[in-house]
Amino acid sequence: MSVLTSARAEAALAALAPARLGRVSEILGLHLLVGGLAAAVGDLVEVESTTGVPVLAEVAASGSAGLVCLPLGPTTGLRAGALVQHTGGPLRIRVGDELRGRVLDGLGRPLDDGPSLDHLPLVSVDHPTPPALSRPRITEQLGLGVRALDSLTPCGRGQRIGIMAGSGVGKSSLLSMIARGTDAEVCVLALVGERGREVREFLENDLGPEGLARSVVVVATSDAPPVERLRAAFVATRIAESFRDEGRDVVLMMDSLTRVAMAQREIGLSAGEPPATRGYPPSVFALLPRLLERAGTAATGSITGLYTVLVEGDDMQDPVGDTARSILDGHVVLSRRLATSGHFPSIDVLESISRVTGAVTTPEQRADATRLRRMLAAHRDVRELVEIGAYVRGADADADAALTLMPQIEDFLRQSMDDSTPTVATWARLHELVAR
């Protein structure tokens, strides 16, 4: 004979309680106006559709006229007067070790033909940021397998770095190199706003079976609703947090942070926010720190965040890029000039910086990196003089050394996508180069 506990009694009463329904009073642009329903911002609701399949929508704003809801799927079949039901809370996703090697959509649902994930625990996408004073300091370098990064822009375990570049300069290819060559146990990749054609190419060619086996990939293509594109960033972050809470070191790669901001811009403007800098509403600049601060070190484990920033017209001072640089712990600049000349990865090492270099490298390593930077800076200053034959050797010792060693320097900075160099080997090769 079973005992009726208070928890079972509450569950039974909740099941017997009548469903509270609202109605769609207006469909305008990207949003639905729902009246007669109580729900909080961020909650999910189900909207009746003439197609027979309810459409999920997220509450974006609340006012005297009702709830402003943004659909998470196609709006075909939605109409004014349709019934709306509250799902009981915000978006929840499955987490667990079995996510590795899987491809998910922006809401955490499987996109591949793998086994069901229904047995994994459900967690809310929202998760508290670790308190500032509980975060261990970054003291250990995380190898990324890319020589130009590991030596001249070293990444610490738990650091957050922005990869700044215009379109078509090699951001996605650089991320795939890191996914295959990093020392981290788990990689979580968020492809936000990518072309649908490129997703399979990235998975099969760039990432490959080896990279995919250790990764969780979250995909929201450019034709996905703006709420799904925005949620894809938080879903990927929440999955990375679940691994970090188990004490693991995770690399979270997001391509791109700019498209996340653009999705929030669409949502904010649809909810009635005023446009501000370059059409971005204020909520965009409040969103970025909420998202980026969730990565980093914690009491157990770490999340090393690598976020690509698609700058408009190669303008490194665009609003999203400028805001990201002020929050992140360093940035890597990709150069279109290097990309068009066949130099890959097209990292402009003189414009790139890591704010934790002093904490994760030895004095000898920093001296070697500084020596190489000085030679590259001197070569940049005299390059035009050399091309017109006006430079006289002996005028600058660093420039003379750079001109002599430039073939070896370029060979060190260039790297094929299939080449992954261990961190120890990178530092040894750099020392050998600058000691000549």
Helix content: 25-40%
Mean pLDDT: 88
- Class from secondary-structure proportions: alpha/beta
Radius of gyration: 25 Å
Strand content: 15-25%
Describe this protein with a few key phrases.
single chain; alpha/beta; 436 residues; 17 strands; nine-stranded mixed sheet; 13 helices
Describe the overall structure.
By secondary structure, this protein is α/β, with parallel strands linked by helices. Helices cover 37% and strands 22% of the residues. The protein contains 13 helices and 17 strands. It has helices spanning 6-16, 147-152, 171-181, 196-213, 226-245, 257-270, 282-292, 319-327, 336-340, 357-360, 363-387, 397-413, 423-434, and strands spanning 21-28, 31-35, 43-47, 55-63, 66-71, 83-90, 92-94, 103-105, 122-124, 160-165, 186-194, 215-221, 249-255, 296-297, 302-310, 330-333, 353-354. Strands 8, 10, 11, 12, 13, 14, 15, 16 and 17 form a 9-stranded mixed sheet that branches. A 6-stranded antiparallel β-barrel has the order 1-2-5-4-3-6. A two-stranded antiparallel ribbon has the order 7-9. α3 packs parallel to α4 (196-213), α11 (363-387) packs across α12 (397-413) and α11 crosses α13. The longest helix has 25 residues, at 363-387. The chain is elongated. The mean pLDDT is 88.
